[in-house]
């Protein structure tokens, strides 16, 4: 059984070449605080209450990388449980002390599970 703790972040995709205008909108119009750093794939991150919003450029595709990310208490067990059900696991880089992986639901929605490193 996967032990979900909370929603950690949501990734929204923006058109290619729109990072500057997205930064302007989310910083100045919505008033969000940008999280500095060299984030994966050139993404920009913002703090929204106790979760993060990640924005990344993506070309038009029906196989999107948009996703919610859920923090879990037992990442290794969750990975094993999903793999036992025949779910394909996609690995990714560690971000800010978080181990993570992705999978897709039967409708091609991308979902991330993560656990903070000790």
Automatic annotation (TrEMBL):
Please indicate which superkingdom the organism of origin belongs to.
Answer: Bacteria
List each copy of the VOC domain by range. 6-116
Listed GO molecular functions? dioxygenase activity
InterPro entries named among the record's database cross-references:
Glyas_Bleomycin-R_OHBP_Dase (IPR029068), Glyas_Fos-R_dOase_dom (IPR004360), VOC_core (IPR037523)
User: Do you know which Pfam families this protein is assigned to?
Assistant: Glyoxalase (PF00903)
The molecule here is called Glyoxalase/bleomycin resistance protein/dioxygenase
Taxonomic source organism: Spirosoma linguale (strain ATCC 33905 / DSM 74 / LMG 10896 / Claus 1)
């Amino acid at each position: 059984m996967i032990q979900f703790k909370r929603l950690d972040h949501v990734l929204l995709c923006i058109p290619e070449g729109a990072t500057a205008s997205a930064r302007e909108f989310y910083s100045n119009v919505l008033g969000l605080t940008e999280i500095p750093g060299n984030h994966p794939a050139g993404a920009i991150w913002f703090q929204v209450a106790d979760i993060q919003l990640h924005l990344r450029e993506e070309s038009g595709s029906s196989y999107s990388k948009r996703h919610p990310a859920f923090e879990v208490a037992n990442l290794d067990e969750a990975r094993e449980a999903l793999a036992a059900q025949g779910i394909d696991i996609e690995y990714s880089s560690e971000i800010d002390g978080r181990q993570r992986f992705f999978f897709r639901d039967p409708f091609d929605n991308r979902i991330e599970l993560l656990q903070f490193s000790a």
